[in-house]
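On clarity, I found the account of how folds are encoded harder to follow than it need be. Since the whole study asks how a given chain folds, the encoding of that fold should be made plain. For illustration, here is how one protein appears when written out as sequence plus structure tokens:

:::
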Amino acid sequence: QVQLVESGGGLVQPGGSLRLSCSASGFTFGSYVMRWYRQAPGRERELVAGISSTDRSTNYVDSVKGRFIISRDNAKNTVYLQMNSLKPEDTAVYYCNAVRRWDDYWGQGTQVTVSS
């Protein structure tokens, strides 16, 4: 059974940091591209960051470049999103996604709220 379980969300003040984790099971984690998406109320789901399965190359949406870092630990079947210098506009539900060819798996999401 495929599972992606996100954790680490919460309430943080502007300028603060959070680290999201996504623990995977039920598939060959190391073979999958891993991505973080987010969805704010009333807005479409947005790709935030991705990391490849091979050379661990990364990509980011412009709005988070220099603030967020995606990484993966294949030994622990876990992908992370380190979020620094958080802004109110980063408030959203953050989702973990695993993709390879026709396989496309999603977690249930974790809420991140940036507010003073």
Summary: The chain has a mean pLDDT of 97.
